Amino acid sequence: MSGETRNDFIRQIVRDDLSSGKHDRIQTRFPPEPNGYLHLGHTRAIWADFGIAQEFNGACNLRFDDTNPAREDPEYVQAIQDDVRWLGYDWRSLRHASDYFDVYYLAAEKLILDGNAYVCDLSADQVREYRGTLTEPGRDSPFRGRSVEENLDLFRRMRAGEFADGARTLRARIDMASGNINLRDPALYRIKHVPHQNTGDAWCIYPMYDFAHALGDAIEGITHSLCTLEFEDHRPLYDWCVDKVDLAGNPQLLQPLLDRGLPLEAGKPRQIEFSRLNVNYTVMSKRKLMALVQEGLVDGWDDPRLPTLQGIRRRGYTPAALRAFVERLGLSKQNSLIDFSVLEAAVREDLDASAQRRMAVLDPLGLVLTNLPEGHGEVVAFANHPKDEAAGQRDVPFSRELWIEREDFMEQPVKGFHRLVPGGEVRLRGIGIVRCDEVVKDGDRVVELRCSLDPETRPGREGANRKVKGTIHWVSARHAVAAEVRLYDRLFKVPDPDDDSDGRTYRDHLNPESRRTVQAWLEPAAVDVAPETRLQFERLGYFVADRKDHSPQKPVFNRTVTLRDTWATRA
RNA sequence: UGGGGGAUCGUCUAACGGUAGGACAACGGACUCUGACUCCGUUUAUCUAGGUUCGAAUCCUAGUCCCCCAGCCA
């Protein structure tokens, strides 16, 4: 959908800012903290940040908000870049908040000089006491009145490493009585004698999010800084930082960056908040995803059951489907829990159009065509895609002994069953109509069906037009290739695993049947494919050759999603 | 009377004082060599109460409910 037709509240703002001349070009940024993998929830932010910039001929930066070295890791820096690219986006400029540490420091000194910040010696516990509560105002820190000289001296000594972690902070001097707790003299810098993944041992003080993020946006000339709802009441602080430092009006503060060849593009950004993306039957918080991985409840960050982008990719979802999904939801400020069926519909739509068809049997039942000679063999040409001739054809070997899906036969059929029954007829996909003459059983278990193929119903013959109620898929037993097929289902049994109001947590709601592995039989043309090849196994669903484990010698497929099944949902 | 946000079909979302529309879901039906796809149809919504207006989801007033905030996390 184009920028002309999409009209969410953020696009309206952007459009207005462009037409009013407030901006002649827009600049956004996607600012992940490199402390975990990207997940489905980030897709909306990525789509908004990169997509809106793209639509309005602007640009988007990828900026790592790496201001807390204690919990960040370069492993994530690479993975995040890979995921963003996989989703189909690219950035104008790759930045790190840590690129700006010199500027942040200069900005902090300016704040001190202007009387807008002070060094506070209160401990973390004391700060909490002084902060007040949601309904009671806080009290001024006893250090709030320090002179500019003393503040400057202390701050420089903080930087020089003279003090221990937690001994002092640099605080904004705003309003300890504000109803907005973020404005009660928030910390701007804290002491952390921790090496940084990017800057090594250069710093032992690190800026806080509110300060660093606001200035980072200002430095990069971000026009529209999009973020989620929980930052709404940080906006006054965001604006305070931008305005009090005023990088655009004090370009000398940017000198360290200009010296390194970065462009001068400081401006005044506007923060706009939208609601997070939540999807039912899953969890999206980094903390919970981390726990699932670390406790071995799933098989790593790219487990196909996880909503991580890595997991979703391995599951077989396509970037186009993900983009279509978030686009369908749009942007708003309402808290929401999206039904996973919207996601499934988006993948099915994409895969129906793009995935070639093959036949596979997941739960085999032998079927013998008794009126075919022993050793009978032929190849039958099948279209690779019912709606796309350009996808070409493939040869499918056919013989006297076949595997069919066990659930496509019922000895005592329920009403409405369209498939094979004793004495009944069904069409074998691409072959013709067969009649079930005999059911071979071992005790209660059906072990083989002996059938006859009506030669007049082979494709091309007049009888081929005869109508039968059902068509089933099959593979030639002699030619079938064994494959490992992983059948995935939702990770949680309940729609809202985050809801622990009844005392039960997401851990209690794990779906024990979220993964089932079977040995399946594939037609030969399904086997010799590259990892990440997506196929529809007819009448079963969409499957992907596993990105890591699949090879033609040892085929491994993951079920991305089943086909829509109006019969099964009725039964 | 702490501050900040939000309330439209079951779930998302549109409307910018002028026919409450779309998607997903559900339910019927048509088509079908995939019980898929496609097509057609149906059901279901403006938080409440007042007010302004020829006309209100939209504007005003008063309520109700839900979400976020008391990290030296982001």
UniProtKB/TrEMBL annotation:
It is found in: Cytoplasm. A motif ('KMSKS' region) lies at residues 283-287. A motif ('HIGH' region) lies at residues 32-42. It comes from Pseudofulvimonas gallinarii. InterPro entries: aa-tRNA-synth_I_CS, Gln-tRNA-synth, Gln/Glu-tRNA_Ligase, Gln_tRNA_ligase_bac, Glu/Gln-tRNA-synth, Glu/Gln-tRNA-synth_Ib_cat-dom, Glu/Gln-tRNA-synth_Ib_codon-bd, Glu_tRNA_lig_a-bdl. Pfam families: tRNA-synt_1c, tRNA-synt_1c_C, tRNA-synt_1c_C2. Monomer. Residues 26-352 form the Glutamyl/glutaminyl-tRNA synthetase class Ib catalytic domain. PROSITE patterns: AA_TRNA_LIGASE_I. Residues 355-454 form the Glutamyl/glutaminyl-tRNA synthetase class Ib anti-codon binding domain. GO terms for biological process: glutaminyl-tRNA aminoacylation; glutamyl-tRNA aminoacylation. L-glutamine binds at residues 65, 209. This is Glutamine--tRNA ligase. The gene is glnS. It comes from the Bacteria. Keywords: Aminoacyl-tRNA synthetase, ATP-binding, Cytoplasm, Ligase, Nucleotide-binding, Protein biosynthesis. The keyword Signal does not apply. Belongs to the class-I aminoacyl-tRNA synthetase family. Residues 471-546 form the tRNA synthetases class I (E and Q) anti-codon binding domain. One of its GO terms (cellular component) is cytosol. GO terms for molecular function: ATP binding; glutamine-tRNA ligase activity. ATP binds at residues 33-35, 228, 276-277, 284-286.
